[in-house]
Amino acid sequence: MIKNIDNQACSIPRHVAIIMDGNGRWAAQNGRPRLAGHRAGVKSARRVVEACAEARVETLTLFAFSSENWQRPAEEVNALMRLFIEVLQREVSVLHDNGIRLRFIGARDNLPTILQKRIEDAENKTAANSRMTLMLAVAFGGRWDITQAIRQIAAKVDAGELKVEGIDEAMVSRHLSLALYDDPDLLIRTGGEKRVSNFLLWNLAYSEIHFTDTLWPVFDSVDLASAFEFFRQRQRRFGQLGNQKEAGAD
Ligand code: FPP
Q1: Model confidence over 27-42: pLDDT tens digits?
Q2: 20 lines ligand 1 (CB under 6 A)
């Protein structure tokens, strides 16, 4: 399906994270209501999921709804919740048939009960799949994630299971939502803004970041190939000198 990404010829990031921005502006440019932009955004997400699976990306994390998105007008929030429910109903079997494991990160207790149930069912149905993990960040915020990790750790200290001196970076990582997954290698943000917007604050510490003006509904496999080419050209040093990294000093 995707012709311009050759997995053998370029180094494909193992974990790709995307801030899908620009649905509303795309709708406005096309004289359509914002919900039409979100519907077009779902189609775009479908294309990108397919392209990433074909390129053998291991984990794709999509920022679908942030902690701050609750502050949008109730009408838009409700429409988005209904859209997520509809998308799960329609797409989970297709994802399952294609070997994709679906996982969710975020404050799921805040979501409508029916959506929580669909999420749980989708996770259970696809749990054994291993071709690619599609991680949907819904009601997610990086600060929320770090806060819930601190709470879990503090509760263990409180219960006498852990000493304060025993808390280190690895322990914090293990209590974050992406505990079982490697950090994203590449973050893509569409829609022209150049910020991280409270996404995976801890896990993006060393990610390469590719910003594009393309609005999410029209982001396609050619744009994805450009992002992968940008990634290929980066020399990832993780705070070391270039020659240390080349010598495998990490
Ligand atoms: C971004 O555009 C919109 C969102 C992050 C909300 C929902 C995302 C989708 C419907 C896309 C894919 C969904 C799934 C379930 C994979 P915006 O509204 O911030 O656009 P604007 O900045 O142009 O107003």
Answers
A1: 999 999 999 999 999 9
A2: yes
